[in-house]
């Protein structure tokens, strides 16, 4: 048995399951991988451990079958999970509703409560639960902890969390702005303070989490005071397949004019909108290639994306009053220098000056990309939601 504790972190999607076995103290990733195309005849599982890659290709009927394949791959390379010192399984669950804002140890009551939250997050919570239920069956002796994506934003000021709609209706149905990607916003803002050797309490930060899903937050002295996602992860920035902000009148109009029912509108706004809706492509790398090739739809999509991002940066600078840092993170934010440059271009009068050479330099480490005399420090800080979930899981159990 290993004398170094590890946590297995799971992020279950509808047809995929990402996992990471991580040492919470050091952040060392013992192994990681993904189960893909669950429910299809040609699924795939991989296990990456250092330079070693082990793979299974074949039918994976459900999440539990996928997870047991992962365990088989572990033992196939002589490392059953027990010998890895596994002390907990940490699960990402998207929506904690009004009642869950701390990492919570899994028991039957929690599972029932997450089921009750399904109407708030029909696309996410049920699939997150599949991962939890599979783990409980396959690893009955290892405690599971749920870390909610909404938790960090639980303390948003009331006037920020409140929609201006009928208050009775809102109360009855728990309609408010919850915010998502909380684990990432919290991790990245904390990591930024560490990297700058500053106190989190002294910094006013804007964090831009730009991945396939995208969200912005304003964090004043370590407390989130604004975020772009709302009741669901649909509000806010333009995303890979999600519209972000639209006039809610569009929903009624689609019902009346296009005859779509509510589930069809859900699919349109969550899966067929955003960059994909505008140009047919939601992967940012491919989108950039299309823009370079002069594709007019991709160019418009890119411009809509950047315009929305700039609107949020402006709004959050005013919300904060004084902005010390603007931090880019997640797949696009960490890797795409053009997005970072365009999002903050021409803002010298606001004290924001991105350095072209620093911005173009690639690294996996936190780094400053603004000039030395920029009043606002602009950074790229890689997110690490898995490590944050692992650490919070250990804390919840201690
Ligand atoms: P995430 O949801 O954080 O995994 O981010 C996914 C998005 O990041 C996709 O749109 C990818 O195209 C984009 N992305 C990942 N790697 C790169 C890269 N090296 N350059 C540009 N975009 C990237």
Structural write-up:
This protein has 398 residues and is an alpha/beta fold. The protein has two domains: 6-148, Nucleotidyltransferase, domain 5, CATH 3.30.420.40; 198-385, ATPase, nucleotide binding domain (Nucleotidyltransferase, domain 5, 2-Layer Sandwich), CATH 3.30.420.40. The chain is built from 15 helices and 14 strands. It has helices at 63-76, 108-116, 125-138, 158-161, 167-172, 182-196, 249-257, 262-271, 274-279, 284-292, 296-320, 330-335, 337-343, 356-360, 385-397, and strands at 6-12, 17-22, 29-36, 43-49, 52-58, 86-93, 104-105, 144-148, 204-210, 214-220, 223-227, 325-329, 367-368, 377-380. The strands form two sheets. It has an eight-stranded mixed beta sheet with strand order 5-4-3-2-1-6-8-7, sandwiched between helices. Strand 3 and strand 4 form a beta hairpin. Helix 1 crosses helix 3 and helix 10 crosses helix 11 (296-320). The longest helix has 25 residues, at 296-320. The radius of gyration is 21 Å and the shape is globular. The two termini are 21 Å apart. The model has no long low-confidence stretch (mean pLDDT 95). It binds adenosine monophosphate. Residues 211-212, 240, 283-285, 330-332, 335-336 line the site of adenosine monophosphate. Adenosine monophosphate is lined by residues 211-212, 240, 283-285, 330-332, 335-336.
């Amino acid at each position: 048995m290993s004398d170094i504790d590890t946590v297995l972190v799971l992020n279950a999607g509808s047809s995929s399951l990402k996992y990471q076995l991580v040492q919470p103290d050091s952040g060392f990733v013992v192994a990681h991988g993904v189960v893909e195309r669950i429910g299809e005849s040609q699924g795939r599982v991989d296990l990456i451990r250092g330079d070693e890659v082990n793979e299974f290709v074949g039918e994976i009927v459900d999440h539990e079958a996928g997870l047991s394949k992962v365990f088989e791959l572990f033992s196939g390379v002589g490392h059953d999970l027990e010998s890895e010192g596994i002390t907990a399984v940490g699960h990402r669950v998207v929506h904690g509703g009004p009642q869950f804002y701390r990492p919570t140890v899994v028991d039957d009551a929690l599972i029932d409560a997450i089921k009750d939250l399904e109407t708030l997050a029909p696309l996410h919570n049920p699939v997150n639960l599949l991962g939890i239920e599979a783990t409980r069956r396959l690893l009955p002796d290892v405690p599971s902890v749920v870390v909610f994506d909404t938790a960090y934003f639980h303390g948003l000021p009331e006037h920020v969390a409140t929609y201006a709609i009928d208050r009775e209706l809102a109360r009855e149905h728990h309609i408010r702005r919850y915010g998502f990607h909380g684990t990432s916003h919290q991790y990245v803002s904390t990591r930024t303070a560490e990297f700058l050797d500053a106190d989190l309490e002294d910094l006013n930060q804007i964090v831009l989490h730009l991945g396939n899903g995208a969200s912005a937050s304003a964090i004043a002295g370590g407390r989130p005071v604004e975020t772009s996602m709302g009741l669901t992860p649909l509000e806010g920035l333009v995303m890979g397949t999600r519209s972000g902000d639209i006039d809610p009148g569009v929903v009624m109009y689609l019902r009346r004019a296009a005859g779509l029912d509510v589930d069809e509108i859900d699919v349109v706004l969550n899966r067929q909108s955003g960059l994909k809706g505008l140009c047919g492509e939601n992967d940012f790398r491919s989108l950039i290639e299309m823009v370079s090739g002069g594709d007019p739809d991709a160019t418009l999509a890119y411009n809509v994306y950047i315009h929305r991002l700039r609107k949020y940066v402006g709004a959050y600078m005013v919300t904060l009053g004084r902005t010390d840092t603007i931090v880019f993170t997640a797949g696009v934010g960490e890797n795409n220098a053009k997005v970072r440059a365009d999002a903050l271009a021409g803002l010298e009068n606001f004290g924001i000056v991105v350095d072209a050479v620093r911005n173009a330099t690639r690294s996996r480490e936190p780094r400053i990309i603004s000039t030395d005399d920029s009043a606002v420090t602009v950074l790229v800080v890689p997110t690490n939601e898995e490590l944050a979930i692992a650490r919070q899981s250990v804390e919840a159990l201690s």
